[in-house]
Amino acid sequence: MKALPYSRIVHCLVALATALGLAAPAQAVRLKEIAAVQGVRSNQLSGYGLVVGLDGTGDRSTQMPFTAQAMSNYLQQAGISLPPGTTAPQLKNVATVVITAQLPAFAQPGQMIDVAVSSIGNAKSLKGGTLIATPLRGADGEIYALAQGNVVVGGAGASAGGSKVQINHLSAGRIPDGAQVERAVPTPLHDSDTITLGLNASDFQAARKVALAINARSGPDTAVALDGRTVQVRAPQDPGARVNFIAELEELQLPDSTPAAKVVINARTGSIVLNQAVTLGPCAIAHGNLSITISTTPVISQPSPLSRGVTVVAQKSDIAIQQDGGKVMQVPASPQLADVVRALNTLGATPQDLLAILQAIKAAGALNAELEVI
């Protein structure tokens, strides 16, 4: 895919900034969009199991001995054991997999959750397979769910005569409602006379606004900001009243504060994202382009007549290096995002060049934003 010219990327950023109203007055947001009640969270579950019933696309037992070992252990639990000295079976319809799932907050025994199934051997496909009963454990090693069911694979493939066609991924799939919860995780929602709100991002101004908004609604000293990310709120002791109180808090309208200025750079793809708080101080930038061109020309060498020689084809490479003269450009102070984008557009640099330019501007103290490289 051909990369977009830098000018088009910048123009898109300006249009997006205008469409989103980044220079417009701040809009109100709901409390549930910037904070959550601490302790109300999901938990990661995982397990190791076997998918059976594959159409010859399972693990190759000679290369994956743990597949045969896992199947032997399963058969022993079913009361079946191979005679001593028996050669390990070659299982083509079985694949070893890792099962992962998210145990939601307040999930109770008997409820169903989705699971993801991923091959860890050399199985060609999990399509048409069935996961046999597999316990799913939490970080503490306890079993919280039991997974079983038919694997749904969102892909297809076929091969014959050395040719192969494949659409999407065949080594992973999902089982909707594939696990039944066996144990609930205690949630400390009613353990004390207060609840704690955790902000999605550390911001003292946002924490202060949350506390002020809650106190304005429920009375003074109801909420207090403990730090830039935590707000402690006094809540009713009765479970039903506490749930209603939290539900009303989540819908509480808050003035949207301007976030901390940040520029995020993806060094692998050259993507650059700026938020609306980014500003530039006046600075001067020298930017030059270095281009290296390598061209290859075939050279044919013919032998002399009657020399019994052979024609030889060689390659001749020419390397040219060109460096354009750098220009010193003065960038004015830019107080808004659209002005910043317009100032950067005047440089005429590609996104890859802009990575180094932004880091140099930051080092010079002219970029009023946090620079994060991912």
Automatic annotation (TrEMBL):
InterPro entries in the record: Flag_FlgI
GO biological process, one term: bacterial-type flagellum-dependent cell motility
Pfam families: FlgI (PF02119)
Keywords, ordered alphabetically: Bacterial flagellum, Cell projection, Cilium, Flagellum, Periplasm, Signal
Gene Ontology annotations for the cellular component aspect, listed alphabetically: bacterial-type flagellum basal body, distal rod, P ring; outer membrane-bounded periplasmic space
GO molecular function: structural molecule activity
Subunit note: The basal body constitutes a major portion of the flagellar organelle and consists of four rings (L,P,S, and M) mounted on a central rod.
Family, as annotated: Belongs to the FlgI family.
Main function: Assembles around the rod to form the L-ring and probably protects the motor/basal body from shearing forces during rotation.
Name of the protein described by the UniProt record: Flagellar P-ring protein
